Amino acid sequence: MTMILLASNENPLGMPESARRAAAAALPGAGRYPDSNGTALKHALSARLDVPADWLVLGSGSSEILELAAQARVMPGEHVVYSQYGFVVYGQVAGQVHARSTAVPARDFGHDLDAMRAAIGEDTRLVFVANPNNPTGTFIEAGPLLAFLESVPPQVTVLLDEAYGEYLSPAQRYDSIAWVRRFPNLVVARTFSKAYGLAGLRIGYGVAQHGLAGRLNAQRPRFNVSTPAQAAALAALNDGAFLARSYQLNTAGRARLAAGLHELRLASIPSAGNFLMVQVGEGRTVHARLLAAGIEVALLDNYGLPHWLRITVGLPEQNEAVLAALRDLAPAR
């Protein structure tokens, strides 16, 4: 039985052919160390984002950007703030640098920015904000988010995690890079793992002003991004047709999943990402039954959400398969 993998928010289209060709073409040079500065990719990102190349930090996925921010900005015993249902890695990286951390109670499963601002104290050094948020899919409008950034003391770094930003609708999109130009304490983290389809190659990047980017780069392992990953990311960055197809597939698939879950009388949270969080009752029981039916989705016990599962938006036939399986499992809920 071939498993339907809907647990890790990967792009169901897989890797774009342009990136596949570029990675293959780069393999003959993989006997040598990669370009530690990621010169070609940074040049392309610099032109695309209209920022200096030294404002860029390459990471092994955007998760490494989160780690670098904690390593660069937080000393043992200092304070990190994030939302209750923020990405699980935020708490993990706070632990890695032996920081105190506060998971601020969520508001409607999303960020309570007022409460997060109130949680910032004299020893707070880093605040994580995900937009859209994983695993809940919640989204913060530009106005409240900008007001929050304006309220944060300058000695506190804010990391704005935009791993799912390419899935935002046109009405939701905002220019966070303009905010980087304005706020020297802001890092925007992005990834090629999701909409660009390069999850297995592990490549992402951060954008921050020169001083803060320099501190992150000082923590960065020298050869943290491989030669094929850099080549594939450069190709994917320039493959607008693939990105548009990914966006359209996700928008339609997410709407279909949400409608299907509603028909099954399963509550889900409106999502701005490429996944839906759905309330199923006994999460582990339903998860096990779905696995037995050949479908893998994500448990959310580690978020304190044992009655919920997260379902990645898949190809149309995969979305129908998970809806059919949930329909068949109705008595188990």
UniProtKB/TrEMBL annotation:
MF GO annotations: histidinol-phosphate transaminase activity
Cofactor (UniProt): pyridoxal 5'-phosphate
Gene3D superfamilies xref list: Aspartate Aminotransferase, domain 1, Type I PLP-dependent aspartate aminotransferase-like (Major domain)
Entry keywords, A to Z: Amino-acid biosynthesis, Aminotransferase, Histidine biosynthesis, Pyridoxal phosphate, Transferase
Catalytic activity from the UniProt record: L-histidinol phosphate + 2-oxoglutarate = 3-(imidazol-4-yl)-2-oxopropyl phosphate + L-glutamate
Record flagged with keyword Magnesium: no
One Pfam family recorded for the sequence: Aminotran_1_2
Domain named Aminotransferase class I/classII large: residues: 3-325
The family this protein is said to belong to: Belongs to the class-II pyridoxal-phosphate-dependent aminotransferase family. Histidinol-phosphate aminotransferase subfamily.
Subunit structure of this chain's protein: Homodimer.
Protein name (Swiss-Prot/TrEMBL): Histidinol-phosphate aminotransferase
Organism the protein comes from: Variovorax soli
Gene coding for it: hisC
